[in-house]
Design a protein that fits this description.
The complex is a heterodimer of chains A (about 180) and B (about 180). Chain A has seven helices and no strands. Chain A has a domain of about 100 residues. By secondary structure, chain A is mostly helical. In chain A, helix 3 crosses helix 5. The mean pLDDT of chain A is about 90. In chain A, about 75% of the residues lie in helices and about 0% in strands. Chain A is globular and about 55 Å long. Chain B has two domains: about 100 residues, no CATH class; about 45 residues, no CATH class. The mean pLDDT of chain B is about 90. Helix content of chain B is about 80%, strand content about 0%. Chain B is built from eight helices and no strands. In chain B, helix 3 crosses helix 4. Chain B is an all-alpha fold. Classes of the chains: A mainly alpha (about 180), B mainly alpha (about 180). Chains A and B meet through helix 1, helix 2, helix 3, helix 4 and helix 5 of A and helix 1, helix 3, helix 4, helix 5 and helix 7 of B.
Chain lengths: ~180, ~180
Amino acid sequence: MKELVSLLNAFCLLSLLAVGGGSAVLPQMEHETVSIHGWVSAADFATIYSLGQMAPGPNMTMVGLIGFKAAGITGMLVVLLAFYLPSSVLTYAASHLWDACKNSPWRDAVQKGMAPITIGLMLAGVYAVGKTASYNPAHSLEFNGITCGIGLAVAAILFARRINPALLILAGGVAGWFFLR
Amino acid sequence: MNNPTPTALFAAFFRIGITSFGGGLVAYLRDELVTHKNWLSSDEFLAALEIGQTLPGLNSVNVAIIAGRKLAGPAGAIAAAVGLVIPGAVILCVLGVLYARFRNHPDVVAALAGIAAAAVGLLLQVTLKIGAKQFVEPRALFFILLTFVLVGLCHVSLPVVLFLVAPMAILLHRPPKETAT
């Protein structure tokens, strides 16, 4: 029960902090779930995140798996509700108010001001997941070279042409199976 | 414009929730709501997206809430958001169970390492692409790096960073006096 309350607290807060999308809370989420509460290991977190990128739908639904790991199926439901409900309620309420301040120049200031912060948070998210998934000191230099290589290749291919990212993630799995066994 | 029932909304969002492999949900939503079903005008969709991006939470879920509310009230908002999230959650449940069972199998470990490495590449590419304009603007770059260092490297808590950094960034973009309302 205590675990469920901790999950509820952590993910409700993350929900309300997810400015500019779910990736923005990735570094904070990693810190909370791995270092503070120990619900998942750093490697589990990276794996769960990447599984989430393969499933359809909103890409942060993977938070449910962290809840599952921490407290079973109840944990999963608690986390999904905690992560999606607060921001949804806020959005529901705010969509009433939004039109009222349609012409306020501050709206623009908020959007412009928050944009680089969101990017900074996403970059911190790359680092939070990458420090186990791309460069892990516990692995050999060769292993890390291959994981970094896969990541950079995916980024480069996506810049070069439009391709469904889920396919590239699967291709990463095949490459991993082939090179990293 | 014909107003759909909550059931019709649930069905439409469920379909997006189950087919949208590989992210880019906003494009799927636009296709379905504007082009396919003609439930929203292109401007209405853009307005919904604008609110959804500014408020915390996932953009796709927020757009579902706003569109659902607009089309069928509170029941519509709930139907849209739940329909969007459920398919991915179920698929992730299956992936999670498979992961728990086979996580120590060497083939699976290798494939998952590749998948996680590829997911980092995907997040990196999305970050660089969304932030392309911000990275070359000195003032924005300063906020990107400041946020990255505080959250990613120093583990300063996200609420603290938002309360300290966001007001600075917003004030820098404050509207000029003569147009302020």
